[in-house]
Amino acid sequence: MNCVELIGQLIHRDALVPVEPYNSRLKVVLREPESGSQAQIYNLPPDAIVFRLDERFEVERIFKGNSGECKHGDFILIATLHGTLFVIHLEMKRTKGSKPEIKQQLLGSWCFTHYMQEIGRRFWGHNLFLETAEHRYISLRGTDGKKRRTKLDSDTALHDSPDQPLTISSPNYIEFGRLCGRKWNNA
After folding, report:
1. Of 50, 51, 10, residue with least CA distance to 26
2. 37, 46, 108, 168: least buried by Cβ within 10 Å?
3. Is the dihedral of CA 53, 65, 63, 134 positive or negative?
C-alpha cells in the first residue's frame, strides 16, 4: 500500500472533499460554507486525496491555545506528481488575513501531518510513511467567489515552509502543478 492509499484508509470519509472529473482530468472545489469562501484546483493527479482539517481536528479540548497551537489550516491535498509525493497545506481567507495567523494555521497543519505520519509508522507498520513527501504551504485569499483574475504573489522562494507560503489572490483557477512549485508548473 502506497502513502496515498494508506491516507485513504486513515482519514474518515466525512472529512474527505470529493475530487470530480473535469475535461478528462480531475479538479476539486474547496468550500467553506460558513463564510461562502471557495477555490478550485484543476489538473489533479489521479491519486489525489483532499480532506478538510479545520472541521474535524479539534485540539481546543486539549490545548489552551495561548501561543496559537490550536490553529490549523483548512485543507490538506496529497497527491503524487511524476513520482514525487506532495502534501499541500491550504489556508483560505475570505479577505486578506494576517501573516502571523496564517503562519500559525499552516504550522498547525504541518503538525497534523507529522501526527498522521507517526500513526502510519506505529499503527500501520509503514516505517517510511510520508518520509519523502515534499510539503508546500499555500495561502488563498480573496476567496469570496467574485470573478476576478487569479494572482500569485512573487514566488522567487520555494514555499516549503509555513513562514513563506505561496499567496494566491482570487483563486478562481489554480493548476495543481503550480502549487507544487516552479519545477512542476505545467507538468
Report:
1. 50
2. 46
3. positive
User: Cell triple for residue 113?
Assistant: 501531518
- The values of phi and psi at residue 56, to 5°, are -105, -25
pLDDT, tens digit, for every residue of 126-172? 999 999 999 999 998 876 666 666 656 655 567 888 888 988 887 77
Counting other chains too, the contacts that 122-129 makes at CB distance below 8 Å and 24 or more residues apart are 124/6, 124/9, 124/10, 126/1, 126/3, 126/6, 129/3, 129/6
Q: DSSP strand E in the chain: where?
A: 16-17, 19-22, 25-32, 37-42, 49-52, 75-81, 84-93, 134-141, 151-152, 166-169, 174-175
10: Cβ contacts below 8 Å, ≥ 6 apart: 116, 119, 120, 124
Q: Is the CB of residue 79 less than 8 Å from the CB of residue 44?
A: yes
Q: State pLDDT tens for residues 30-51.
A: 988 777 788 889 999 999 999 9
Q: Among all chains, which residue has been given the C-alpha cell 488563498? A: 140
Domain containing 52 equals: 3-184
How many domains is the chain built from? Answer: 1
pTM, whole model, 2 decimals?
0.89
β-bridge mates for residue 40, sequence order: 29
* Inter-residue contact 71 to 54 (CB < 8 Å): no
